[in-house]
Amino acid sequence: xxxxxxxxxxxxxxxxxxxxxxxxxxxxxxxxxxxxxxxxxxxxxxxxxxxxxxxxxxxxxxxxxxxxxxxxxxxxxxxxxxxxxxxxxxxxxxxxxxxxxxxxxxxxxxxxxxxxxxxxxxxxxxxxxxxxxxxxxxxxxxxxxxxxxxxxxxxxxxxxxxxxxxxxxxxxxxxxxxxxxxxxxxxxxxxxxxxxxxxxxxxxxxxxxxxxxxxxxxxxxxxxxxxxxxxxxxxxxxxxxxxxxxxxxxxxxxxxxxxxxxxxxxxxxxxxxxxxxxxxxxxxxxxxxxxxxxxxxxxxxxxxxxxxxxxxxxxxxxxxxxxxxxxxxxxxxxxxxxxxxxxxxxxxxx
Amino acid sequence: xxxxxxxxxxxxxxxxxxxxxxxxxxxxxxxxxxxxxxxxxxxxxxxxxxxxxxxxxxxxxxxxxxxxxxxxxxxxxxxxxxxxxxxxxxxxxxxxxxxxxxxxxxxxxxxxxxxxxxxxxxxxxxxxxxxxxxxxxxxxxxxxxxxxxxxxxxxxxxxxxxxxxxxxxxxxxxxxxxxxxxxxxxxxxxxxxxxxxxxxxxxxxxxxxxxxxxxxxxxxxxxxxxxxxxxxxxxxxxxxxxxxxxxxxxxxxxxxxxxxxxxxxxxxxxxxxxxxxxxxxxxxxxxxxxxxxxxxxxxxxxxxxxxxxxxxxxxxxxxxxxxxxxxxxxxxxxxxxxxxxxxxxxxxxx
Amino acid sequence: xxxxxxxxxxxxxxxxxxxxxxxxxxxxxxxxxxxxxxxxxxxxxxxxxxxxxxxxxxxxxxxxxxxxxxxxxxxxxxxxxxxxxxxxxxxxxxxxxxxxxxxxxxxxxxxxxxxxxxxxxxxxxxxxxxxxxxxxxxxxxxxxxxxxxxxxxxxxxxxxxxxxxxxxxxxxxxxxxxxxxxxxxxxxxxxxxxxxxxxxxxxxxxxxxxxxxxxxxxxxxxxxxxxxxxxxxxxxxxxxxxxxxxxxxxxxxxxxxxxxxxxxxxxxxxxxxxxxxxxxxxxxxxxxxxxxxxxxxxxxxxxxxxxxxxxxxxxxxxxxxxxxxxxxxxxxxxxxxxxxxxxxxxxxxxxxxxxxxxxxxxxxxxxxxxxxxxxxxx
Amino acid sequence: xxxxxxxxxxxxxxxxxxxxxxxxxxxxxxxxxxxxxxxxxxxxxxxxxxxxxxxxxxxxxxxxxxxxxxxxxxxxxxxxxxxxxxxxxxxxxxxxxxxxxxxxxxxxxxxxxxxxxxxxxxxxxxxxxxxxxxxxxxxxxxxxxxxxxxxxxxxxxxxxxxxxxxxxxxxxxxxxxxxxxxxxxxxxxxxxxxxxxxxxxxxxxxxxxxxxxxxxxxxxxxxxxxxxxxxxxxxxxxxxxxxxxxxxxxxxxxxxxxxxxxxxxxxxxxxxxxxxxxxxxxxxxxxxxxxxxxxxxxxxxxxxxxxxxxxxxxxxxxxxxxxxxxxxxxxxxxxxxxxxxxxxxxxxxxxxxxxxxxxxxxxxxxxxxxxxxxxxxx
Lengths: 350, 350, 378, 378
Ligand SMILES: Cc1ncc(C[n+]2csc(CCOP(=O)(O)OP(=O)(O)O)c2C)c(N)n1
Ligand SMILES: Cc1ncc(C[n+]2csc(CCOP(=O)(O)OP(=O)(O)O)c2C)c(N)n1
Ligand SMILES: [Mg+2]
Ligand SMILES: [Mg+2]
Description:
The complex is a heterotetramer, with two copies of chain A and two copies of chain C. Chain A is of the alpha/beta class. Chain A has helices at about 30-40, 65-70, 80-95, 115-120, 125, 155-160, 175-185, 200, 235-250, 265-275, 290-305, 325-335, 335-350, and strands at about 15-20, 25, 45-50, 75, 100, 135-140, 165-170, 190-195, 205, 210, 220, 225-230, 255-260, 260-265, 280-285, 315. In chain A, about 35% of the residues lie in helices and about 20% in strands. Chain A has a seven-stranded mixed β-sheet, sandwiched between helices. In chain A, strands 11-13-12-15-16 form a five-stranded mixed β-sheet, sandwiched between helices. In chain A, strands 1-10 form a two-stranded antiparallel sheet. In chain A, strand 15 (about 280-285), helix 11 (about 290-305) and strand 16 (about 315) form a beta-alpha-beta unit. In chain A, helix 9 (about 235-250) crosses helix 13 (about 335-350). The longest helix of chain A has 16 residues, at about 235-250. In chain A, about 70% of the residues are buried. Chain C has one domain (about 10-365): Thiamin diphosphate (ThDP)-binding fold, Pyr/PP domains (Rossmann fold). Chain C has eleven helices and ten strands. A six-stranded parallel β-sheet of chain C has the order 3-9-10-6-5-4, sandwiched between helices. A two-stranded antiparallel sheet of chain C has the order 1-2. In chain C, helix 1 packs across helix 2 (about 100-105) and helix 2 (about 100-105) runs parallel beside helix 3 (about 125-130). Chains in contact: A-B, A-C, A-D, B-C, B-D, C-D. One thiamine diphosphate sits at the interface of chains C and B. One magnesium ion binds near residues 201, 202 and 233 of chain D.
């Protein structure tokens, strides 16, 4: 009964296509910054708006250097007003621009939810396809950076829940470039999630030229036979760590899926994997109730029931209002390789 | 890993306790209206605020007669500003009142999500228990009344996802009274969902006097052995209809659980039932992705795996922006007895 | 009939308000229509537009065309109520009383080029921007070929890419920042387009209006914020909506002019909006225009306004009906005589009849299409 | 050093602004401090408060006490920066430059009775309301016994039921409607309490401020909206934040007075807030007070302000340091001499040292408590 959304999936090859052969090693934040620059060079309709995105280059410096190259008309330091930022971006999109709005932290996106969920996401449908709202909303999210309750949140589930908006969360610099490209070229609003802890800690090869990672396609990070781990964002890296340890310790063969796109969700890749391994651990650092982990777990339980050899296990943050500031409390809250490892071992033993 | 929230559950007997023996047959809306009146009589700290709640008595007339009895200071017609309504109510709660805020339709609650989810829900935690925010937010929700995209929404999953707020959705006049009483007396913010289609179409016996239905306890509507249906709100009634037909047709014995409280979720009652029947259909009229149905299904899959004889099946609205206005489109979107029946038959045949 | 309440009367509502009688405890009041325009007794930072005179420099053809839109909107509105009462239209939201201001504003703009971001009362505005009577009836009856939303939106939620009418939602005032955005795009793209967005005085209380006006002021955007102040937000009277008398008095807080105009004086509104559009096109930025007017009908077909306003008040305002005032003006300036006026009425009536017939005969949407257009087609 | 940009300079930022030099293309500017207060060249609906004179009617003990809070806040702030640079405090938000206005405002209120709804720069305000240096250091180092949040909030998010300081969040301006609510409760419960809530000129752009002011105006609530206008929201200068010069000019849109005051003049702020509190207690409703001041440090310890403001500008404002100005005033009126001033400084330093020692030695929270107090205990 729950739509799988497959029809919105781009028919592009799975792990991104580069046109032009070169690649460069860069950080996650560099990948985003250079992609923004390249897209703005390629299409003058692309504009950026948000708080401190101008001379400051963003509080994380994701937009560094852009106002110098593209000017104040295309890189707009807005007033401190998130609903206004998104509402204005919607009007821009309607009148021929391709706005990329930055919300400074996901914790501050709440006051813009009306404009995002009721307006941007529903404009195409309510107008019977007469209007559309091609725009990207870039949002740093996630925890583990001593951000406390209001600089650590991961509330992507609310967007996945709502029809009409797509949601992506790259875990590598290459996917950051590829998915950002696809998001900017998509016909609908796309929420582009940037894990703030990854900005400078994650590096990787990024293809040069026009590189696309299709929206709606998961990435198989590593193949395995005994259990599948499904996750996204920073938890891809924590899961990799956990898998390394558990594999070494138990000899288990573990498959890891990086969802990349939370909506559309690549149900096919998930189900194929679980049908092969018979077991799944679904990991999110967000609060667990009604989360993306709940959705993936429910989907597996519903569509791969006959193949399951153990309970689909969720590893998710507890029902606590995001991590506290103090390190021991933050650590207790935050999902990490250790907690993922516990769940993996338990499921392998089932 | 996902907290079950059991520790927040009141230790009250299961289906509500009345003190005083009488009961009256009344509609859902009458149950809410009279309970509001009784609570305001009993405690002068209780105030009501919202749009049109005064002389108009609310657009649905849930607050009819209250301003006449309790005056303008306690029944406040607010400006048209949902974030302001909730923000003001939070301040009222902090300074000793017991506000009951009405949001006219759940479709209009989005602009108040910052105040609800970041403020009301997180005040106790962030202040390490120094402050709290006892308040009730009453919200008509749900579809099937030709309300189109913006007078039909059911976005309760967003609230269930967020720590610090409780969510209830009564399906009977008695539970409306009992849960509203409990919500007003609770120490934390409670979202009180009123299915607008039930206001005048659902009648039932309502105990007089101080009647409580504890937050966090589901209600077993009818017992059965072959399959469990878990749902809430109006879908309790649609499920009852579906069960009637399917049972007659197949002779199956079907258990029906009305969650009543979406958060805390009564995992114990759900699991006990599924461990008995081995099969579950979870029904919500909300969009399915990351929904309460996803959460319940994932929980069953995780904690009752060994007892399952078939896939936990969700019946939920598709990824479409709430129902369109035109009747054939509305009908195609809306979950009803027929769609529930299809899922039930399929699962019984598994 | 405002309900008597036992609560302490809030002194805040008792301030002097010209033209309003206040009862002893201040909680019951009647809003009387005023000759020219009521701006209250408080501080005034907005400008008050003068009443219009004569033909306002418009030729007679244009005046007649304007009148026809006012009359068509009224007739369509009345017909929709009939269809609602007959059980044929599930829901109606009425613009009666607002038509004059809307048509005056529309004619001050470059239709086909400028953007309209309407709210649900803007039937007359939408007609003047290009929607036909038939389009409107198709929407009212939620037919498959309703060009405004394919029967998906509730009636009153007009939209049309063809006519630059941006499809709006029901949550009030969300369209206001969209207008800031369309104006920003017009400015940087150099299209010369003006955007106008409409909202009620209730809607003016929403944070979005503040955020949108502030942004537009900073960038001196070509946008007109058009407040149709009818003194009620459903049942909530203006005294409970704001402590001031004029929404336009807020413009000073955003660095652009506020203008108050008698919204039942079609040509006065025309002139004010024309000035605002000229300003916008000259790059001088936004204007907040507040049209003072009245809604003659209940909020919607689901409302009963007797719970919150005195029928005497409604009656008093009906004497200032923009339709009647405008007809009289056309007679005064010689743009029509009684015969040609009757001719227009006949034409309007037959338009409405034809539109109703077509819409009633038109098919409902195919249920299989209910999940189309959530996302772009691949 | 404002970055040179290639984009077309927005004419909106070029309006006359007394005391600001504007470069050729209008996009780079320097905000100079002004003798008395800079209200720009635009329309002014707010009142401009006069500079304070002499002791403003306060006795010398009180003046010294006020000075001690200003000095203590400054010293604590400086110590926190040191701890941050030493890797002992993960994050610091600085109130340097704001202390005078905060202490002036605090002393105009009935501490212990009135409500403070602060924002993250209100260290001095919170101290004057009752928090101790030790409390603040426990919060800065996120210790278990931090009475403001038990180490849960980022530093700068002060709260205390004991002292009527309402715990705030990080999303800006969300506290503003809370103040409307505490004031409403105070009014109907007849407690005589005034609520004051603080926010920056950036925060003033949020819809919540509009909604809260509007509600408070309607009900004439005992609340003071206190804007600490330091001309930047992180990097965004006031010209990109609003098209007007004074946030207080918006008060007229809500039916209550706006007052602009030199926020580096402690006693001028004291007098303005005293008047506002008196008004509030007399039932005459809210006041919007705008204190013009400057932030001496980067936004937080994570910020580098050289990307967006000229060090010359910072230097110029440092000559108007409220700490130095207030010390001079105390000398002028004879409330202190150089010796007693040095004595206060010593006391403050040893308070800060002691607080640091206690906090550094105090234990971190027990990780097992991380999920306590999500809901009320059963
Ligand atoms: C955000 C939001 N809250 C509440 C409503 C319900 N509602 C619809 S119209 C209306 C009153 C609007 O009043 P006003 O803005 O003055 O416009 P008018 O209807 O008087 O023309 C209300 C409360 C809504 N549509 N959106
Ligand atoms: C809703 C929201 N958006 C963005 C931020 C990030 N942020 C924190 S402080 C700040 C600037 C605030 O400026 P202002 O209100 O002028 O206060 P100041 O810091 O200058 O005292 C911003 C953008 C936030 N905390 N909340
Ligand atoms: Mg109105
Ligand atoms: Mg500032």
